[in-house]
Amino acid sequence: MLVCGKKMIRIGEPWPEFNDGICYRDTVGHSDAGESIIEYYSRKYKNSAPLHGWLQRIHKKQITVDGCVVTEPDTVLRSGAELAYHRHPWKEPDAPYMLEFLYEDDDVIALNKPSGLQVLPGGLFQQRTVLTQLQRHVATTSGCKEPHPVPVHRLGRGTSGILLCAKTKLAKSCLAAFFADGTAVLEISRKNDFRMKTRNITKQYRALVSGVIAVDEVTIDQPIGLVKYPGVAQGLYVASGSGKPALSKVDVLERDLLGNSTLVQVEIQSGRPHQIRIHLSFIGHPLIGDPLYCTGGQPKCVNHEIDECFAQDGGYQRPEKPVPGDCGYHLHAHRVVFSHPVTHEVIEVIAPLPSILRTQRESKAEDGM
């Protein structure tokens, strides 16, 4: 087994004040032909902006049809027309930009993602992402024939730790299959331990949760599903009896009776979005500092409306209530063991722990005591 993580290379370029903007393209389908341009956008992308917001974007000459700017909302669309909405550059929220490489070869990168950095473009973050820094680095330094590195899984914006990335199409397909296998094959033995037909990847996290967990081990198999949630277009993931299978094994590392908290290690079999946050809150021990989830694996705020004020580009303002990308909790992808997609060598990657997620013994060892 190859163990990695002690020696790290740091890379990263400071973010520019404004991003480059973004262009969203569409082709008018046969069923959409005959609609006006305002009907098309306000119906198809109502989660991006309300009717008035799309009118504002049209009047600001941000939409083109077959390359020509359109300023009349009632312009009728024909089948096959090429549409483009040009979102103007904007200042993205603050985010760290430095990355630590824990392991790298011609096929795979394992990096240490800082809390507060989004993995892939989405929402307000289109440029300040892991993907941007990763592609900048590999494009200028790698001799690989396919310098198109991409993350093969996700970590929440507030989650830190190991993120596996592929530098080749072969590595991407293999690693993605490893993660998919772990989610698809869920079996629990009579001893409530993990079992699966083949495990090519193991993921362990550290987390700091509220309350004192009485037992030393907990296996959580609560399904996770989607519910409607204002400000989150695709819906919010929550504990749901009608959701998809999810499995987490929790081991207590240290209890703080005075601080009413517990330091835990979590090994996840499946990879549902926000799984650890949802599962630990489901058993009554949400992550300390989590602004979104509370006991029961549900959001703290469920009945709030979208603010009727709009941003400068016509879209909805960011909701005042918590959303999934909000940070503040303590969750760290600490250890990953996987089979290399090309050499098949077993590789163990360890990301150094934040001080708040170390046991007292680990802190003393780190301090040289």
Topology:
Blueprint: E1 2-4, E2 9-11, E3 22-27, H1 37-44, H2 51-59, E4 63-65, E5 68-69, E6 82-87, E7 99-104, E8 108-113, H3 130-141, E9 150-151, E10 160-166, H4 169-184, E11 187-188, E12 194-195, E13 201-210, E14 217-220, E15 224-229, E16 232-239, E17 248-256, E18 261-268, H5 275-282, E19 293-294, E20 298-299, E21 331-339, E22 346-350, H6 360-366
Parallel strand pairs: 1-22, 10-21
Antiparallel strand pairs: 2-7, 3-6, 4-5, 4-6, 7-8, 8-10, 9-10, 11-12, 13-18, 13-21, 14-17, 15-16, 17-18, 19-20, 21-22
Explain this structure to me?
The protein is α+β, with helices and mostly antiparallel strands and 369 residues long. 16% of the residues lie in helices and 30% in strands. The protein has six helices and 22 strands. The chain has helices spanning 37-44, 51-59, 130-141, 169-184, 275-282, 360-366, and strands at 2-4, 9-11, 22-27, 63-65, 68-69, 82-87, 99-104, 108-113, 150-151, 160-166, 187-188, 194-195, 201-210, 217-220, 224-229, 232-239, 248-256, 261-268, 293-294, 298-299, 331-339, 346-350. Strands 1, 2, 7, 8, 9, 10, 13, 14, 17, 18, 21 and 22 form a twelve-stranded mixed sheet that branches. Strands 3-6-4-5 form a four-stranded antiparallel sheet, with no helix packed on it. Helix 1 (37-44) packs across helix 2 (51-59). The two termini are 29 Å apart.
